[in-house]
Amino acid sequence: LTTEQADLVKKTWSTVKFNEVDILYAVFKAYPDIMAKFPQFAGKDLDSIKDSAAFATHATRIVSFLSEVISLAGSDANIPAIQNLAKELATSHKPRGVSKDQFTEFRTALFTYLKAHINFDGPTETAWTLALDTTYAMLFSAM
Ligand code: HEM
């Protein structure tokens, strides 16, 4: 990513990054197979767990992870740190049986959420696509 592209991603992310519960809800709603992998949520009704403390805790963990990656974007010096985070995600999720297809589903749901909630002009969409392509290439090569 160029500095300008990284700035676009950071600026737009900052407008939605505190909507953690909303974001996880959108992911689970679109892809119940992802929710089914969470022992404490599997088999439950999404709308009834959405407002629970456990849901908020998990949403914050996942969204904070994204914030951490995004905060590192735009500087070549940070590439190894981003690779490490991608590796951590791959390693921690492998025993949970999370597939590449499911990570791709997550990406699709996140992208749809972003499109609906931020001003997604051409350059912003290009920057997000590149950011996700780059991180997912790292993630998938570590799986
Ligand atoms: C934890 C599943 C994607 C970040 C977890 C847990 C499960 C899980 C089962 C453990 C929850 C528990 O404590 O019982 C999945 C599935 C995914 C997915 C099925 C399918 C796409 C992601 C993505 C991110 C992420 C894309 C980051 C953006 C985390 C973090 C934790 C976590 C930070 C807590 C720390 C840890 O235990 O590793 N995930 N996850 N997950 N997930 Fe995911």
What does this structure look like?
This protein is mainly α. The protein has one domain (3-141): Globin-like. Helix content is 72%, strand content 0%. The chain has 8 helices and no strands. Helix 2 packs across helix 5 (53-72) and helix 7 (100-117) runs antiparallel to helix 8 (122-141). The protein is globular and about 45 Å long. Residues 34, 37-40, 61-62, 65-66, 89, 92-93, 96, 98, 102-103, 106 line the site of protoporphyrin IX containing FE.
Topology:
Blueprint: H1 3-13, H2 20-30, H3 32-35, H4 46-49, H5 53-72, H6 79-93, H7 100-117, H8 122-141
Helix pairs in contact: 1-8, 2-5, 2-7, 6-8, 7-8
Protoporphyrin IX containing FE binds next to α5, α6 and α7.
Task: Offer a few descriptive terms.
single chain; 143 residues; mainly alpha; Globin-like; 8 helices; binds protoporphyrin IX containing FE
Number of strands: 0
Could you describe the largest sheet, including whether it forms a barrel?
none
The CATH topology is Globin-like
Number of domains: 1
